[in-house]
Backbone:
């Protein structure tokens, strides 16, 4: 690995050179960005080692030294112990890691932490103060929309994002709108009941 | 995921300069929904990521007399909700709004969608784009190829092109603009997609040191009937078996000319001139639509376990035509 | 005087049998519930495994030197050393722990392992030739059995049907992957957080594996993200995390599987395929059964599906062969062997009914005596299901003749399960301040165990559920059993009912004199202890407990024990209403009805959720799920969740659940409900598809390719005929 050549192109010169190798990356070394001069202007280069990253999570500023390859999900869970978002598929295919980023639902596993700086990130943990339940979470409880509960925080966030946009959703909008999340225990009837309750329709209590 | 260095250029030219001569030197990070998964699976392992999201020139959607310009960083969500896209290019809005899941549409960009890699299960599990076994034989031909190509499948590539938006853009005769060290170039989107002949090639014409800057779509034919039809088993978030996008220019009840593009049937979005020819000059009926579907798959061949896709591609074309005729957009 | 432990009569129940919100709902839906995967222990290390890429191989060389030199690497353990035989791809060979995940993954890539590849088999579609199977190492003949006189019975049968049926290998796909966090607080004690269905059983298994006293292993788990039968035992990953922790001086080591190895190696449900022949008289009387079945047994061989399922066919001949293949370990998968057996039985019988020109509903009723000992239950359930589905009003013979490509059909299936309560122990303490504590080494795997325990104790003591402090998920509490086989509800409810009854009686003995009554005259209700015949003579619960003075009451409850509180053997009926697009082969679920008997229902909301969840899981395996293997490379192909597909919220249609309860059911006692409703969906949905399109789609899942293939085959056979 250490014999790999540095990536250079025409118009690039390195002011402070950092060789890329797997070995140096595992050193617990924190570096500020190095600077490249590219097309006559400076471009900061972060990593491959650890670099300071600051996130705004549930209204709090959280900082850590992270390699650029650390995802938002892993930073939240392992560095900041914000574990509402779950790691299930880790490929943006299941929805369990859903968080809101600048008011949009996203898969936290598919965003780099370093790239989530400057965004407002909200997880289920931050929807309501400790001891209180957000109305979406409460509707999940009322409709028994959780069994093992591992998909639930992601589903709650997806539901919140969906209802913010579609307060009076049709069935088809609901099927597509919550199509980005999967549950293995089979709580969909309860989730539909929760959405119905929150939409004011309250046609059916699916879970009971 | 292997370690990489991370850069956030503010200008297009810088982004290009930061890319490498070869794949795996560097990759462009936009929405990240496909790239990060490929990196975690060690299918690609760039030494540098060039995050282009801070380049303001690459954002935005605008519509004017000459047509539509979509910045490479426009998200599928933005495209699906853009008033003029919905009005003038309804099936582009539809396909963008129906791709993947809400969480992906919120971040996935049109540039990334054009460059997303195939879902071939050998490729994703590290057996290479062409999925060649140790004895040089194709794993696809030997194995479970139920999701593989029925057209353009003479080899050595057998995967299917994954984008459901690209065929719609191709139906609208979109062009893609690229920027490299030598300056910009613009090519028809249809020509952007290529069937690779060797493991070192990719399935699109982007060079390792180029970025996608825009997609431009000419003004749509006036009064054309359009439709996009996807055959997928699940209601949502499921790769389709086949899709068909059709644009029919009418002369009264007769189809004057047509553009019929399929996806998930070949290593590239598949423009079916055969289907178009079968339909041109005809009025639309169950019979003529089905004949066009039959023409679309006349040259299709099964790899052993994907015969159903021939039937499904035919049905997709037929239904898209019938739906277009009814003026439906669903 | 011996206590007579009897569940309260319907009019006496205040909390038992009432719909209650799940007590751990708030902590789960707010994201605050902590699963094993979520824990970040002080100075924790992260571990990953080097996976064998081959389905069958021998380890010939391991070089960990480069990894061990890497900064941040804390320890390496070899799981399968040189010379060891590997039986499926994805098997861990070496595990490595490091300061963070990225470093652990880098270290995994730096470890070089060489293998000698051995011949493998990962497919099971092909029908094994029985005489060859008896000689081949790839097959094991598991069953050859004849009862009655099948030869004569088939001669007497006026209508005979023969067909092929089958279900594929599927995986558990638990959303929380398998794994654990091991740490040694000191060299004599091991503390394990582990994602498991078996908190009480892990210590012995782990102690044996690492030669460490089980008594010094503390196991704890608050929540588990799904198990479905795949998390009953200790895994190599659990052992490795403990060994790595030891190497790292006792630091906590978290080792959780990624999704790909979870799907590859953390358990699967065996396939089952069969050629089945059934015969009946013209009036529908079922006479004879003959089957030749086979399925993936994995390297262990495996058992055989219990066919004919549920039906006591008087004359039978059966043979089963296991395919010894390298597909990963078979593990209990929610109602092991039953869903496969149900498909292999209810589908051919549905085809036979069609050949008899009978409504399957009538066919079942005609042969209801063959469903002994549950004939009466099935008969009652069929009538309930008929009403909920409108079966008799809407049923049509095979093949929907309406115009257009989309055809609608109905199908049904029956199932059974045991579900008797397992061995349980609980300690229930009433403190002088009126607080109540229940300690029990069980676990809530998402079924609602916490809620049910609290409902039982609350009902028995007459105090609100939120006044009871329930502690579970720890092997330092009284020993319960693994949560498997739908055995938990019967065990924990019975043990806690006994404990609460005993504690209550002890309390009555202390306070009777203060109420100028005999202990036997008292009752606990509405938060008071009172004379049953004179509610004016009462003490608040708190005042009553104050009479205990300085000593609290602790009652130990067990299961089994005195009184018939739990039972075994349930029946269930499910009906499916589907639409099939005959041009695309896409099957959509319009509606499913599940009618289920489970004795006395403690927690109706959570019991219904179990049935709903089971039906959804059933829809998923009926339409989408399949572990796709590649014979050339010996590996699994659909290793993530876009290709290993689960049903989504929009795919499940309208679901209706009816629990059989009340007189005739309640007095049987408490019976588990987790597995049985998972059994019928495969057959019910397959039968509905056959009813819709007039053709049997022989194998699950009912994907467009299989539906189209069946339609084309029927068309070409029709053309020939």
Residues:
């Amino acid at each position: 690995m250490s014999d790999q050549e540095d990536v250079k192109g025409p118009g690039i010169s390195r002011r402070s050179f950092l060789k890329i190798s797997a070995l140096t990356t595992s050193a617990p070394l924190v570096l500020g960005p190095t600077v490249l001069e590219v097309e006559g202007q400076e471009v900061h280069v972060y990593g491959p080692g650890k670099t300071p990253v600051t996130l705004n999570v549930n209204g709090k500023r959280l900082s850590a030294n992270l390699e650029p390859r650390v995802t938002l999900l892993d930073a939240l869970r392992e560095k900041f112990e914000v574990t509402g978002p779950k790691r299930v598929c880790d490929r943006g295919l299941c929805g369990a890691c859903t968080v809101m980023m600048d008011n949009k639902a996203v898969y936290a596993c598919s965003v780099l932490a370093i790239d989530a700086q400057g965004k407002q990130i909200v997880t289920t943990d931050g929807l309501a103060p400790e001891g209180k339940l957000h109305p979406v979470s409460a509707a999940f409880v009322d409709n028994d929309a959780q069994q093992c509960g591992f998909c639930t925080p992601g589903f709650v966030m997806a539901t919140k994002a969906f209802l913010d946009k579609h307060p009076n959703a049709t069935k088809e909008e609901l099927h597509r709108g919550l199509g980005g999340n999967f549950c293995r225990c089979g709580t969909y009837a309860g989730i539909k009941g929760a959405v119905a309750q929150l939409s004011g329709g309250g046609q059916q209590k699916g879970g009971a | 995921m292997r370690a990489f260095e991370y850069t956030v250029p503010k200008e297009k030219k810088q982004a290009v300069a930061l890319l490498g001569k070869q794949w795996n030197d560097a990759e462009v990070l936009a929405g990240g929904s496909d790239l990060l998964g490929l990196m975690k699976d060690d299918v690609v392992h760039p030494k540098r990521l060039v995050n282009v999201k801070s380049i303001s020139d690459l954002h935005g959607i605008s519509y004017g007399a000459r047509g539509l310009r979509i910045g490479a960083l426009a998200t599928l969500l933005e495209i699906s909700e853009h008033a003029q896209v919905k009005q003038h290019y309804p099936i582009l809005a539809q396909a963008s709004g129906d791709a993947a899941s809400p969480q992906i549409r919120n971040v996935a960009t049109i540039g990334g969608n054009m460059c997303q890699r195939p879902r071939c299960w050998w490729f994703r599990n590290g057996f290479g784009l062409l999925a060649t076994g140790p004895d040089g034989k194709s794993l696809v031909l030997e194995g479970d190829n139920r999701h593989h190509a029925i057209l353009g499948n003479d080899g050595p590539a057998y995967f299917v092109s994954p984008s459901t938006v690209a065929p719609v853009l191709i139906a609208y005769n979109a062009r893609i603009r690229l920027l490299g060290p030598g300056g910009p170039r613009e090519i028809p989107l249809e020509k952007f997609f290529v069937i690779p002949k060797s493991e070192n090639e990719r399935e699109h014409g982007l060079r390792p040191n180029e970025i996608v800057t825009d997609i431009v779509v000419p003004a749509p034919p006036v009064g054309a009937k359009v439709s996009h039809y996807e055959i997928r088993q699940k209601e949502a978030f499921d790769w389709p078996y086949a899709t068909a996008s059709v644009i029919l220019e009418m002369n009264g009840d007769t189809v004057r000319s047509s553009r019929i593009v399929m996806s998930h049937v070949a290593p590239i979005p598949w423009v079916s001139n055969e289907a178009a020819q079968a339909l041109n000059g005809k009025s639309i009926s169950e019979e003529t639509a089905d004949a066009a579907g039959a023409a679309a798959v006349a040259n299709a061949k099964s790899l052993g376990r994907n015969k159903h896709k021939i039937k499904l591609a035919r049905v997709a074309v037929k239904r898209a035509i019938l739906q277009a005729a009814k003026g439906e957009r669903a | 005087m011996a206590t007579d432990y009897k569940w309260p009569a319907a009019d006496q129940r205040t909390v038992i049998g009432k719909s209650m919100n799940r007590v751990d709902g708030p902590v789960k839906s707010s994201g605050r519930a902590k699963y094993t995967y979520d824990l970040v222990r002080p100075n924790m290390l992260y571990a990953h495994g080097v996976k064998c890429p081959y389905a069958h191989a021998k380890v010939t060389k391991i070089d960990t030197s480069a990894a061990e030199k890497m900064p941040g690497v804390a320890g390496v353990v070899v799981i399968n050393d040189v010379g060891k035989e590997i039986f499926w791809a994805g098997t861990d060979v070496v595990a490595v722990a490091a300061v963070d995940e990225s470093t652990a993954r880098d270290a995994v890539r730096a470890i070089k392992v060489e293998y000698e590849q051995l011949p493998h088999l990962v497919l099971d579609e092909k029908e094994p030739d029985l005489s060859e199977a008896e000689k081949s190492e790839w097959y094991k003949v598991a069953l050859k059995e004849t009862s009655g006189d099948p030869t004569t019975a088939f001669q007497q049968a006026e209508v005979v049907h023969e067909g092929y049926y089958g279900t594929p290998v599927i995986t558990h796909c638990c959303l929380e992957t398998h794994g654990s966090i091991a740490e040694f607080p000191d060299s004599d004690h091991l503390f394990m957080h582990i994602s498991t269905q078996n908190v009480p059983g892990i210590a012995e298994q782990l102690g044996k594996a690492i030669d460490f006293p089980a008594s010094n292993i503390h196991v704890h788990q608050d929540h588990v993200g799904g198990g479905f039968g795949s998390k009953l035992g200790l895994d190599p990953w659990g052992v490795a995390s403990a060994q790595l922790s030891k190497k790292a001086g006792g630091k906590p080591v978290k080792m959780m599987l990624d999704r790909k190895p979870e799907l590859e190696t953390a358990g699967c449900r065996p396939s089952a395929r069969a050629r089945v022949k059934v015969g009946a008289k013209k009036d529908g009387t079922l006479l004879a059964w003959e089957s030749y079945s086979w399925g993936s047994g994995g390297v262990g061989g495996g058992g055989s599906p219990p066919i004919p399922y549920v039906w006591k066919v008087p004359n039978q001949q059966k043979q089963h062969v296991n395919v010894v293949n390298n597909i990963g370990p078979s593990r209990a998968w929610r109602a092991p062997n039953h869903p496969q057996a149900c498909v292999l039985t209810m589908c051919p019988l549905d085809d036979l009914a069609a050949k008899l020109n009978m409504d399957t509903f009538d066919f079942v009723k005609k042969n209801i005596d063959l469903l002994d000992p549950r004939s009466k239950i099935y008969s009652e359930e069929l009538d309930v299901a008929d009403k909920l589905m409108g079966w008799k009003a809407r049923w049509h013979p095979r093949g929907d003749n309406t115009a257009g490509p989309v055809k609608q059909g109905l199908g049904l299936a029956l199932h059974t399960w045991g579900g008797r309560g397992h061995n349980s122990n609980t300690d229930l303490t009433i403190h002088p301040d009126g607080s109540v504590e229940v300690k029990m080494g069980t676990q809530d795997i998402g079924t609602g165990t916490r809620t049910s325990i609290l409902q039982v104790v609350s009902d028995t003591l007459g105090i609100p559920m939120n006044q009871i402090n329930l502690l579970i998920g720890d092997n330092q509490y009284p020993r319960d059993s693994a949560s498997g086989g739908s055995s938990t509800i019967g065990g924990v409810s019975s043990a806690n009912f006994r404990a609460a009854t005993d504690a209550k009686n002890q309390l009555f003995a202390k306070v009777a004199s203060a109420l100028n009554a005999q202990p036997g005259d008292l009752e606990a209700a509405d938060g008071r202890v009172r004379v049953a015949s004179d509610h004016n003579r009462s003490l608040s619960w708190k005042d009553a407990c104050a009479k205990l003075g300085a000593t609290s009451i602790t009652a130990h409850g067990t299961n089994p024990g005195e009184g018939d509180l739990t039972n075994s053997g349930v029946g269930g009926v499910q009906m499916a209403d589907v639409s099939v697009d005959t041009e695309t082969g896409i099957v959509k679920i319009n509606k499913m009805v599940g009618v289920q008997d489970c004795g006395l229902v403690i927690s109706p909301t959570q019991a219904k959720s179990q049935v709903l969840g089971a039906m959804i899981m059933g829809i998923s395996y009926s339409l989408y799920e399949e572990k796709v293997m590649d014979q050339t490379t010996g590996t699994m192909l659909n290793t993530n969740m876009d290709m290993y597909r689960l049903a989504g919220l929009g795919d499940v249609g309208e679901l209706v659940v009816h629990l059989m309860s009340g007189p005739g059911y309640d007095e049987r006692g408490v019976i588990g409900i987790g597995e049985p409703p998972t059994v019928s969906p495969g057959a019910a949905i397959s039968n509905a598809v056959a009813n819709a399109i007039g053709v049997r789609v022989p194998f699950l899942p009912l994907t467009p390719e299989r539906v189209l293939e069946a339609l084309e085959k029927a068309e070409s056979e029709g053309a020939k005929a």
